Amino acid sequence: MVARPSLMIPTLLMPLFFIVSFTGAFSSLSRLEGYGTSNVHDWMAPYAALQGSVFAGIGGAASAADDIENGFFDRLLLTPGSRLPILLGTAAYSGLRSLIPTTAVLLASTLGGLSLRGGPMGLVCLYVATVGMAVVFCLLGLTVAYRMRTMRSMMLVQVVGFSSMFMSTGQVPLHFMEGWLRVVAGLNPLTDVLQFARQGFLGPLTWSTTWPGVVALAAMVVVTGLAAGRSLGKMAP
Amino acid sequence: MAGPDLVAAVRQTAELARRSVLAERRQLLNILPGLVFPLLLAAVYSRQFSRALAMPGFPEVDSFLDFILPACVVQAVSFGATAAGTELALDIENGFFDRLVASPVARFPILVGRLAGASLVAAIKAAVLVAVFLAFGAGVKGGPAAVLVIMAVAALLVLAIGGVGQVLAIRTGSQEAVAATFPLVFVGIFMSSAFFPTALMSGWFRVVAENNPITWVIDPTRRLVIAGWSTGDAIQAMVVPAAIALVTVSLAVRALHRKLGRS
Prior knowledge:
The complex is a heterodimer of chains A (about 240) and B (about 260).
Chain A: H1 8-25, H2 40-70, H3 72-78, H4 84-111, H5 120-148, H6 154-166, H7 179-187, H8 189-202, H9 207-235
Helix pairs in contact in A: 1-2, 1-4, 2-4, 2-5, 2-6, 2-8, 4-5, 5-8, 5-9, 8-9
Chain B: H1 3-26, H2 28-48, H3 64-81, H4 83-94, H5 96-102, H6 107-135, H7 143-172, H8 175-179, H9 181-190, H10 203-210, H11 213-226, H12 231-262
Helix pairs in contact in B: 1-6, 2-3, 3-6, 3-7, 3-9, 3-11, 4-6, 4-7, 6-7, 6-12, 7-11, 7-12, 11-12
């Protein structure tokens, strides 16, 4: 990341594009009764930040896939010691990467009048959620990369990331949705993470919004971590 | 161009178009995301934006599905639009282009053949998408004629965007450089009236969306879907991408002449 900062450009530009296009195209939604805020930035900024984190996480896994393709990973596996740091190192790198798009989205949204009604703890919730999501999608990406051993396989993870974010309360509240989408978004753990990340921008923080998000995040980290560990174990017993 | 030359050029164009269509058919997995992603978007948006239909400024529509149909088609064809450029770049990279130039093939079919193939695929994609929308309850008030216009718009858009891809392919000879144009098209679609009416936008974003050529294509196409047949709308929907295609394909031809002049 430090040696080749240009690699961060897509990670930085994508969420900025999301925040500009979502707030621009759908700004009038905040005029609808029950939307939750009168400023669309309060609603969309956490969504764009989480989208950016998902891509930051997949980007971290993609760098591992690149290492697998170019043979560096095989040399890494020849070194003595536990395999766990390989996994944890990549996940930590992805979490760190996510700080950049999140901060960029916050700065851009501040220009659009973003308000932090929940105080500084609201920001903490957002950063915990975005770092957590980057780790989750990095671990998911690593699970796929260790099995398929190609960079191209990251496309699959991108589709999963994009679709699951889309079928959550990213753009409108749950009670605005109808039919199958309402059911899917209600069951989608990313909805809980989004509500946890977003609460500080809509009002004061509440425990009833916090704990489902934290539990969903922790559960996803554990599940994807176990899956990635298993894939790595199969690849390098 | 004399008679026999013209016949030969048309035959060569058809042959290269067929090659392009076969290449797309062989890579069905590359076509699928271009169909699945816009359909997913339409499915989600139609279930989450239904309250917006009642907002003042929103055009009168039976469902959000009707409203988003043209956007879905534009988005789907834009996925494949850069393929004509990347294919040409691949041919340059692997040496096929040099062999083609050394053969007695006219210059124009080298470009137009690929674009024609991609346009044909785009028109078929548009027909498939309309059929899926109709199956899920959407309606095209303009009738079969409007569906034909939608297919024509899809084909012309591919010519317009593919022309840009071919200019880049000729100038850089790199697939990556051509593929980099896709995000720009994606941004262009989002910053238009594709997903929400410009009347409900505000500030600089509204100005950009109103002056975006994609809006000039989508709005009349949408009126054919939600309001009914209008010859004026049909002409506007097709003239805008046709004019852009004329410019971009001309630029591609010029770039090819320059490249061949240098070599």
